[in-house]
């Protein structure tokens, strides 16, 4: 009887000795995964994404506001010197206003792609969205500065010489293209952020 009990105890000890390493490995793997999730999916990732949406809209609107205001001064001067040319002279103001739409588009797209579920929005996605917002916003800001300066000067010249109009439109188109470049890159960066796969086994 005692021999059977000793044999059973030895078998139990052998099973426990074989299971304990497996349990330890499971606990270690779970702890490692939790650390990976906390590192790759921090709460600050959402802040980066929201900041990207904000800077896209703010900088684009700054460029749009400056371009419209600066060119508007030239349009007002044109109204005094050649009132019949005002409708063609407001082209720079219209093109400056379009820049704000670029920032709005990028901000809405980024905001829609910010995920609120746990472990679903990584630092990689957040920083890419921040970069997309900066690309669109700063490009639109540069375009607005260019449109404002070109529009103000060219509209004043158009009031005295009709042949300036075609050259003014061409200069404004190339200035507007700066904002379009930023919009294209922002959309590409947003797509790259959405294609990024799950990390640490997270969904």
Automatic annotation (TrEMBL):
<keyword id="KW-0812">Transmembrane</keyword>
<dbReference type="InterPro" id="IPR035921">
    <property type="entry name" value="F/V-ATP_Csub_sf"/>
</dbReference>
<dbReference type="InterPro" id="IPR011555">
    <property type="entry name" value="ATPase_proteolipid_su_C_euk"/>
</dbReference>
<keyword id="KW-0375">Hydrogen ion transport</keyword>
<dbReference type="InterPro" id="IPR002379">
    <property type="entry name" value="ATPase_proteolipid_c-like_dom"/>
</dbReference>
<dbReference type="GO" id="GO:0033179">
    <property type="term" value="C:proton-transporting V-type ATPase, V0 domain"/>
</dbReference>
<feature type="transmembrane region" description="Helical">
    <location>
        <begin position="164"/>
        <end position="189"/>
    </location>
</feature>
<keyword id="KW-0926">Vacuole</keyword>
<keyword id="KW-0472">Membrane</keyword>
<dbReference type="Pfam" id="PF00137">
    <property type="entry name" value="ATP-synt_C"/>
</dbReference>
<protein>
    <recommendedName>
        <fullName>V-type proton ATPase proteolipid subunit</fullName>
    </recommendedName>
</protein>
<feature type="domain" description="V-ATPase proteolipid subunit C-like">
    <location>
        <begin position="130"/>
        <end position="189"/>
    </location>
</feature>
<dbReference type="InterPro" id="IPR000245">
    <property type="entry name" value="ATPase_proteolipid_csu"/>
</dbReference>
<feature type="transmembrane region" description="Helical">
    <location>
        <begin position="130"/>
        <end position="152"/>
    </location>
</feature>
<dbReference type="GO" id="GO:0016787">
    <property type="term" value="F:hydrolase activity"/>
</dbReference>
<dbReference type="GO" id="GO:0046961">
    <property type="term" value="F:proton-transporting ATPase activity, rotational mechanism"/>
</dbReference>
<keyword id="KW-0406">Ion transport</keyword>
<dbReference type="GO" id="GO:0005774">
    <property type="term" value="C:vacuolar membrane"/>
</dbReference>
<keyword id="KW-1133">Transmembrane helix</keyword>
<keyword id="KW-0378">Hydrolase</keyword>
<feature type="domain" description="V-ATPase proteolipid subunit C-like">
    <location>
        <begin position="51"/>
        <end position="110"/>
    </location>
</feature>
<keyword id="KW-0813">Transport</keyword>
<feature type="transmembrane region" description="Helical">
    <location>
        <begin position="90"/>
        <end position="110"/>
    </location>
</feature>
<feature type="transmembrane region" description="Helical">
    <location>
        <begin position="45"/>
        <end position="69"/>
    </location>
</feature>
<comment type="similarity">
    <text>Belongs to the V-ATPase proteolipid subunit family.</text>
</comment>
